Amino acid sequence: MCVTVRTGAFPTHVITVPSTRSRAGVHPLADLVGERLRLPWITSAVKPSYGPDDHDFHADWFTPSVPRSPAPVHALILEDTWTTGARTQSLAHALKVAGATTVAAVVLGRHVDPNYAPARQLLNAIASPVFDTNRCAAED
Q1: Does 64 score more than 80 pLDDT?
Q2: Rg of the chain's alpha carbons, rounded to an integer?
Q3: pLDDT tens, 69-84?
Q4: Alpha-carbon distances of 114 from 92, 118, 122, 131, 136, rounded to whole Å
């Protein structure tokens, strides 16, 4: 797992970026992954004053429940979409502040607005994509 190579530690806990749209129940990504990773889940409260359309980093957006133990916590964030990265970065910051030793994020999807001029370079670069599951994206 390339996350282990990049962080120097195998993840000990997993968390999804909490919904900021006040969705009730288990996050769909957590429901999909379930116990397949065989890691304990970290939960997080969301500060309601930041709305779902907020795309800025906020150090106090999330309050994760990082376990207090003598063993280091190596958190793996699973994100189902990536637009600006603000939520993932805000959660990573909160995890570190709450005591996580390392934090890594794996993003499963990305939204690209084809009408946004800076996105055109990305769209041109992936016009003929080559996807290799044996290659770590962090190596580039």
Answers
A1: yes
A2: 16
A3: 889 999 999 998 777 7
A4: 28, 9, 9, 21, 26
Which residue, 104, 93, 91, 114, is CA-closest to 39? 104
φ and ψ at residue 44, rounded to 5 degrees = -150, 140
Q: Are 75 and 102 in contact (CB under 8 A)?
A: yes
Gap between the terminal Cα atoms of the chain: 15
Cβ–Cβ < 8 Å for 52, 114? no
Q: What one-character DSSP code corresponds to residue 138?
A: G
pLDDT, residue 59, reads 95
Q: Copy the structure tokens of residue 3.
A: 């996350």
**How many other CB atoms are there within 10 angstroms of residue 87's CB atom?**
27
- The mean per-residue pLDDT over the stretch 19-42 comes to 80
Which residue's structure tokens are 């794996």?
Answer: 106
Instruction: Pick the closest to residue 52 from 87, 99, 78, 80 (CA basis).
Output: 87
Burial grade of 15 (CB within 10 A; 0-12, 13-18, 19 or more): buried
